[in-house]
Amino acid sequence: MTTAAAPVPTAERPYLALALLRNLRVARSVIVLVILLGLVLPHVVADLSLYDPLWTGPACFLGLLAIAATDAALVARHRRWGRARWPVAAVVLALSVWATALLPPWALVGQPHQTFGAVGWFGVLLLADTGLPALLGFLGLHVALTSVQLGFAHRLDPVTLVDLAVVVAATAGFQLAVGAGGAALDRVADTATEAARRQAAAVTAEEVARQLHDDREERYGRLRESVLPLLRGIGEGTLSPADLDVQRRAALEAARLRRLFAEESDVADLLAADLGLLVDVVEQRGIEVQFSATGHRTVPPPAARRALVDAVAPALVAARRSARVTVSAAGTGVLVSVVSDVAVADAGPAEAAPDVSPEISTVVVGTEQQTWVEVRWTPSAS
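Request: output the structure for the sequence above.
Response:
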């Protein structure tokens, strides 16, 4: 028998909905077991002599009981019937036809004919999760098969047909009500799920907005500490714009400002965009820069992205005539490298990033005419 695992909580159907639907499955399984053991079994025992041979009556009952017990076991293991529900539903109908054929004609649609009222509950058990049309089809087919057997037994007289209609109305009506209740519960669960999802989305959006605001406030504070002294020094004349070190500091701060202002744009590759802004600043000084971003790369978090850019910025800004910048995937992380035509001593140290330092590794190799900086970000296991 092929069974399917019960759905796992997802964004569309989280635990709330699954818990409601699971409780409904438990209730259906209990109802069928109670009907079989409390109502059908006593009549099977009392009317045992009507079956020929005698063992066929208990055999039909045990077949139905085995299916009900299997469903209870699936419910306990959080599993479903899956595609097996259809052949099992066919077996239930076959057992009903067999039990009906074993009874004498006068006993049909009477107290000994217990399977007629009980089989419909197996339709609820097996098919209610697939929707009301499947349940209606099962109940309708069961009534049709019983009517055909009544015709072969010459029991289509008005009295029998009235009794048949009464039993169908009493049992099938209740069974359809339970199936419709399950569909209504499914809709209620979906409504509750959607409300919970919207609330969670609103809370998440508020938290993200707060974190972004705090992060930007912190970065604005850092920029004020670095940009304002630079501008004040140039304005007061204590720093000369012709000084090479002042030019490098100005280029770095300009790149940081442009990155901060550009963060509101919808950019797919934020790391490449941040490096591109830095390259633009360098190219405005007449430096020839070759920039290459290759491969499918993991997106670093904002702190790691800033650390990568800040680590290579001094060497790139210090370039005299040419530089090369490459971004590529490195396992689960990202590798950024810069080759600049400047000595290591003139490139300046890479800035530290203490908040992501365990994830960032930097290698600097250089000569008197060239500096190579390689910065690797490897996400932590946590």
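The longest helix spans residues 158-236.
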